[in-house]
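This part of the workshop introduces the protein records we will be handling. An example says more than a description, so a record of this kind follows:
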Amino acid sequence: MDTADLADACQALAEEFDKKQAALNYTGAQATTLGELSANLSAQASSLRTLVVADAINSSNDAVNAIKDGTEAVNTAVKNVQDAADAIRIAGLVLSLGAAIISENPGSVIASARDVLDAVKAFPA
């Protein structure tokens, strides 16, 4: 069992608790406690998945370098953006980069970071 499996197990357990609570009509303090535990299990699953993503990205030097280069380029470009359309474009590209990171696919991270770099090259330094 790895971290991703543990995340899946936490989420499955949370969902099972929610189903049981609904089916058996738990009430009172036990229902409250079970609801809180279910929410905590879901949060734990999310945190574990974040660790898995971090490990996947960190295991790819190219992805790490792409994120670093993309971040530096955006930070520089944002200082010089005057046009709202350019700001919107940068924001969209950064959101795409974030989505690529969440996808756990280093190739997507590299491609998205390159898109960011290409877009900000036109801005004055």
